[in-house]
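Example A, followed by Example B.
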Amino acid sequence: MSEIRVSSKKMKSVLESLFQKHSFTKEQAFTLAKIHTESTLDGVNSHGVNRVPVFIDYVKKGLIKTDAIATKTASMGSIERWDGNLGSGILNALTCTDQAIKLAKTYGLGLVALKNTNHWMRGGTYGWRAAEQGCISILFTNTIPNMPAWGGKENRIGNNPLVIAIPRPNGHVVLDMALSQFSFGKMQSLELKNEELPFHGGWDNNNELTKHPKDIMDSGRALPVGYWKGSALSMILDMLATLLSAGNSTYKIGLKKNETALSQVFMCIDPSTFSDTEIQQNLLNEIIKFTHEGPYMKKDGRTFYPGERTLATRKKSKVEGMQVSSKIWEEILELVD
């Protein structure tokens, strides 16, 4: 697969025009373009620029309502329920993240549960956003059934992404992980490059574990991270998102033809509620230092805290431009025209 370099300025401009063309307001188009570009800038093309054609397809099919906004349906102190009304997953998630932050600043902890929303693209976006506002965050979403429960043959659980972020002056700690060994977006990116996965990522149609992304995407059966442990965690997150939002479970989402009307949870904690901020940072740095200074498996190896490599990729991309699949970029330009 050939790749080209695209500047963030160019990508934002092109995407903003594309989103306005498909009935988003100028303000909404600016936000959507910004988020997709920032994900790509951080090296997460799978949930940034690569997802744009799919997003536009969902808009065209009416699965994403361009005129819909999230609305609050219930509240009790620091806990709220919202309905996404099938609007943009990014715009809904930004609204609910900001609301959870607002509640955390008021009560110390804020939780917003959202139903009837669409794919939030890169979940880490909202973890970084909360960290920039000084909040710890725990965020998760359910998905269509795209993994077998451990020991099962058919897809009955989702790769339900989990995000945990902790603010830190010297670089925020942000965990962003799907509960499949590799996200389907990551597998798509590797397939575009004609590359294999470094480890087994799922089953092929012969029920054999494989490193070939295309075989896994053809079967639709990803491998849970941690095998039975990831399977159990997927079910628990689905249960929590469904119960707290009173929304759709992975089972209900799977009854639809497309992945839509998802359930999500946005929980934020304001650590400044306690008056020991300096102690908190010292403890956090102590953990990172201890991990960094350990012996490595390889002579030139090293270890990283969650989010550390993202910061390095972001810095490099700002200088050199973003590497983008020429095929995806051409498809986007055609959609604009």
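Example B, a separate protein, is given below in the same form.
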Amino acid sequence: MVAGGGPAGCVAALSLARAGARVVIVTPAVSAGWRVGESLAPPARPLLERLGVLDRVAADGHAPWHGNLAAWGGDALGIAPFPSGPYGEGWHLDRARFDACLLQAALAGGARRHTGLVRGVQRRPDRWQVITGDGSVLEAGYLVDATGRAARPARRAGAALIRSDHLIAVAGLLGPPTAGAAEPERTSLVESTHWGWWYTAPLPGGERIVMAMTDADLVTGLRLLDPDVWWARVRLTGHLRDRTARWKEPPRRLRVLAAGSACASPAAGPGWAAVGDAATATDPLAARGIVTALATGSVAAQAILADRAGETGALDAYARRIAAVHAEYLNTRVAQYRRERRWDTPFWRRRR
């Protein structure tokens, strides 16, 4: 049973179903409204190719992504294009379309879907019992937690959720610009400020995502939940202001999203494994969320299959691998934040 139908859960379900397992994905119906887009780096291509969905994703209308620009540690923009290599370009994703593609692939591969939310998880002597929002009771020998940063099934299984910070994103979606606007640049942009940092990227269809990144306890004082104040702070930036000059009005509403670094400890145990953000959640600055989701979904499936075949220690080895990957990420994160030395404010002191 896979709790959650995002990229990590769908990859785990597809990998298990192809190996002959009977798999049920418990996931809610697609919610209405916009979803925050995300960038997908070129190293995701071989992962998607092994899953058999690369051609579908490439033809699905996602916008090309050619690299990153950053005003970090100084006012000037630094350029970090993708190095030339075997993988080609990345994508600025239409997330709803991308997630639907992976879910369809999992169902076509033999997984079944139960529409609903996971409301409760209980461990029985030889299986898991999952209670969904409609009162259904589902049972399975193995449980994959793909529920995201909250990782509630993993915590019910005995994992601790170790948080490193309380970063949040206050995101706004700027609609398509007026007719005749120039083709947008195909790079994402990060710009730091005294209370945190900004992120923006173009999305398919001409829309643009803009996110203010700061700590949860700082948001109220900054009044970032007020669209007019949020927009006024956009106008106070340098490079971000230039990228959003075509838009004259703030977004009608903002979305608040958890974006902090955290990991499940352990990320697997007898009869269960966490994948994606439920296993290792990273700062958006790392731009590795979906690649990690694809990789952990695949590797966790292999560990479950090995455990089912009698390979003692396969799930423990997966948990150790997740712990090592997250530790490496935290070291890289510290080094990146220490590059910005201009401000002696709470946000930056916490990260040094």
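On Example B: The radius of gyration is 21 Å.
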